[in-house]
Amino acid sequence: MTIKLYDLELSGNCYKVRLLLSLLGLEYQHIPVNLMAGEHKSSEFLQLNPLRQIPVLADGDSIFADAQAILVYLARKYGDQTWLPTDAESLSKIVRWLSITAGELRQGVETARLFHLFNFKNINIETATEKSAFILQQLEQHLANREWLELEHPTIADIAVFPYVALAPDGKISLEPYPNILAWCDRLKQLPRFISMPGI
Ligand SMILES: N[C@@H](CCC(=O)N[C@@H](CS)C(=O)NCC(=O)O)C(=O)O
Q1: 160 and 93 share one domain
Q2: End-to-end CA gap in the chain
Q3: Could you tell me if the CB of 102 is within 6 A of ligand 1?
Q4: Average pLDDT over every residue of 97-109
Q5: What is the reported pTM?
Q6: 48 and 115 housed in the same domain
Q7: Residue 185: which CATH number?
Q8: Which atom of ligand 1 is nearest to 101's Cα?
Q9: Please, which contacts does 56-60 make with residues 24 or more away whose CB atoms are closer than 8 Å?
Q10: Could you tell me if 56 and 142 lie in one domain?
Q11: Per-residue confidence (pLDDT) for residue 132, from 0 to 100
């Protein structure tokens, strides 16, 4: 087995990678990293990712950090054309969602979850809650006439955006006002080899 994932079960960023690995039917070795114990700051881990963050994926001697970057790698290396098509228009539309995930969604739903589930103190929860509402409204509107975020089938845009949206209730943000988002989440859950995580 050559693929290793440095991982934490409760991390939505790690779950993005676990989900795509599963959907692609890839086997891998799971290496738990205990953030509470500071394992991500050990000199051994810093060799893998000086940014002190999981997920990190090792494929043989090649090391990849950042959930979105890992999704790109796995889709291109092991997926068929559908997960990340390379024509200019599809690529641009999909990368836009990878960016939204690391920007608006992280500042909103991901941050609200850190506050409520993990008791992170130095967070402005009002701002995070407002940003969550804004981006969820945008997503709801975007999904009004689409089954998937882009194209006619799931891509890594869906895989990158799904975890923290589905985990929004952990941050005390209900998804009930967003029927299109809930229907899209259900479609993702129906994919063959879909796996879940605590909170989803
Ligand atoms: N942009 C990174 C963010 C990863 C991230 O924030 N990971 C968290 C766990 S979900 C982490 O390792 N936090 C440890 C820390 O920042 O000290 C990605 O998408 O992978």
Answers
A1: yes
A2: 28
A3: yes
A4: 98
A5: 0.97
A6: no
A7: 1.20.1050.10
A8: 19
A9: 56/5, 56/6, 57/3, 57/4, 57/5, 57/6, 57/17, 58/3, 58/4, 58/6, 59/2, 59/3, 60/2
A10: no
A11: 98
Give the pLDDT confidence score for residue 1 in this predicted structure.
60
Atom of ligand 1 nearest to the CA of 35: 14
- Domain residue limits at 22: 3-78
- Summarised one tens digit per residue, pLDDT across range 109-159 is 999 999 999 999 999 999 999 999 999 999 999 999 999 999 999 999 999
| Ligand 1 near 49 CB (within 6 A) | no
Check residue 184 and give its pLDDT: 98
If asked whether residues 95 and 52 sit together in one domain, one would say no
CA of 40 from ligand 1 middle (Å) equals 10
**Are 70 and 101 part of one and the same domain?**
no
